[in-house]
Known about the structure:
Number of domains: 2
Order of helices and strands: EHEHEHEHHHEHEHHHEEE
Structural class: alpha/beta
Distance between the termini: 41 Å
CATH class of the largest domain: Alpha Beta
Shape: globular
Strand order of the largest sheet: 1-4-3-2-5-6
Number of helices: 10
Amino acid sequence: xxxILRDKSSLRAWRAALPPGRRLGFVPTMGALHAGHxxxxxxxxxxxxxxxxxxxxxxLQFGPxxxxxxxxxxxxxxxxxxxxxxxxxxxxxxxxxxxxxxxxTFVEESMVSLxxxxxxxxxxxxxxxxxxLKLFNLVAPHLAVFGQKDAQQCAVIERMVRDLDLPVExxxxxxxxxxxxxxxxxxxxxxxxADRAAAPLIHQGLKAVxxxxxxxxxxxxxxxxxxxxxxxxSERIVPDYFEVRDPExxxxxxxxxxxxxxxxxxxxxGTTRLIDNLVL
Length: 280
């Protein structure tokens, strides 16, 4: 049975009551759980003795014209999935619990958060870093697991943990995909049938870049063009970006060297924005 904790005091009391020496794994989510999220829970379970998850649709990371109000919130189904996975506790706070009236302190990473999604979603990663730091302070986990699908988010959190000397191990879990290659996302439920049919081209574009790289093409611009050409096969896909970047700093590169590269894409299908990536 997963214990549901709705306020900070209950969470702190539960954390304090854990037996000494138990390794605590943490999976923070925004809910609408799917197999990708459950793979994070499984990864946490492999490396810890007890697993806690959180569900919080964080308003700070949504822009004024984004999908905060319609973001799916199937709480009962989510709790069932966590219980079946053996998660010990779920932190399920309200917005008022997380952000008391007058809250005016934020966390801002100023390098890896700037390109890619940082350009098109100003303030997004400030919201991510702020809520994750608050959750780390409340849960005090030994490790936390995030999905590689959100590669830039992972980079921001890893940089924050390093820069602020947080005693948390960050683990990245691999992307989980549908049979046709589409990366699992809670937002996939928004896709109209015709958009869903075109969406696998995003992963196909990434795989085309990987194939070109393995065939000897290392020019970042030409590799990106390979991926964009695949996306152009459907007029339903409107790219926000398709970039080949340094895998650590996410800075622009001209050629893919010995450190490899992150190939990252964001694209819109109708009103839905999807992201995906691949590491060379």
